[in-house]
């Protein structure tokens, strides 16, 4: 269980490195077609296959690769929906007895079990999971940039060959992603906690809005929008993901239910409620990245921006003029309000410079 | 139970309109001091009072008003923590028998009950609740802009005088906010659903990260950061808020627990899971604002931005050059990744223009 992130900085995204070729992509929806496009950007022409003729033709038409059958295959990338993953991986291992096989599904123990259950040699199989996606679907929504800068989990196992893991790492870096290496079980435990449980909780919060009078929803702010955003994802896909990771999710869900039980006895404000809220604060501090963790080296400036054409663009232009590097920003507004608030995150040392520069250009800035 | 939002567009923020003066602000933390600053911006000097001499001096020093005692008072704005709210409102009604009294706390039935229980005439009391705040606290973090463009709930009740409600609406619009009028019970039901339940769920998700190995957290993406962001809020304040609205929250929490119970029996992928996920999708579509609801008139462009000084500022400058009005944007990156993805929301008709303009300037853009 080690995080392997060393090569991403050293390796130029787009360098095919140790990638075995030809590459066959099985399943040409958004994810598979994006792999084809990302490989093409690096000079590797992917061979495309899909049961759905419309999808494979769509992937070809957007430039994701060729539909010509490969004579030989170095690496098979299985990119089919979760329910079909195990079968497709087993078929790939049988059809291409010399190839390394990976998949890019959201759950990793299940396809490995399918390989073992089918009696296949799993040395050539190493699963993987790029942490990227889109609310859209199908090859027409694919993009060569989809994986740029994203984490891509690579999950070797006890029987996998080191060369197979190296091939899958090369796939990830060639597509522009950063490799995070962990075991299949660790991967599934991780995504249960950081993705699948949060998705279900977001769906519960969003679902609780059904039947809510519109005038109540008029009080909604950015917090509610942020919490529920992921719940808009494709329910058919998420049903398969959650079902495939039910084993890892059960314990987490039981823990949440136990905390809800305790909370319902302690709502009047006793220590149960305090503990739950403090755990929440502590948890947010563990999350890497610029939103979750409070970085003492960064400052936030708040700028009021009228919701009128050109004003936001003018703010960006003025911020650019200041010479300060903007680390992050967030906009809070809705169509019924005349003014939006823009949060600009900069290093603490450069915040006074940007604040002064924007104020001189007539912006209302506070920190 | 009607939403009253008519005057915000017609009334210039900063126009004191029908505001009774002098205004006394009781409690000069972030919220009270921001009310003072916003009133000052509109030409109304607030009188400031706080048990904490450091706070009242802080509020004065940032320009939130005067510490000179008022000879007479037209409107008292009570801005103390939830646990102290009822007592402070009753005291204000007794001390200033001619004044309108409001408060700006997060829960509205409890202070009204305190007024009734104390035997006070509640005609002069109308509670309110600006939907604004900050992760920071204290008068030093206050801002005249805090309420600009935000919803401000005003909650008349059966015994309140129309003139009292009008005075509180004038306070809200003078501070730059948009009035949403509903009953105290409706307000509390609304915030239980759109704010307090989501906060508790976010805290449960964030709390579930405790003990998570750092290499698992390396897979975290924007979704987790968005879902958990509000859980970083002050736990002492949120304990008081949740406890004061326990009655409205109980039914919502029981419904969530019942759905969790059902889910734990249906995790393998049956209809319980599908229903929960579909309810989530449907719920997100109810939320007003640019993130939650899918607006068919808007498009999203994705731009890959190297995480290097000046690149984001350059993107803003280039976007400004295109002449297209940016409706919204979001940045997804973390410090371990070399490239960030910027999502730019524009009207569907202007998306091709911006995409072409940015591509011509060398940006990698996809939609």
Summarize the structure.
The structure is a homodimer of 367-residue chains. By secondary structure, chain A is an alpha/beta fold.
Task: Explain what this protein looks like in three dimensions.
The structure is a homodimer of 367-residue chains. Chain A has 367 residues and is α/β, with parallel strands linked by helices. In chain A, 43% of the residues lie in helices and 15% in strands. Chain A is built from 14 helices and 11 strands. In chain A, the strands form 3 sheets. A 4-stranded parallel beta sheet of chain A has the order 2-1-3-4, sandwiched between helices. A 4-stranded antiparallel beta sheet of chain A has the order 9-10-8-11, with helices on one face. In chain A, helix 6 (162-174) links the parallel strand 6 (151-155) and strand 7. The longest helix of chain A is centred in the middle third of the chain and has 24 residues, at 184-207. The radius of gyration of chain A is 24 Å and the shape is globular. Chains A and B meet through helix 7, helix 8, helix 9, helix 10 and helix 11 of A and helix 7, helix 8, helix 9, helix 10 and helix 11 of B.
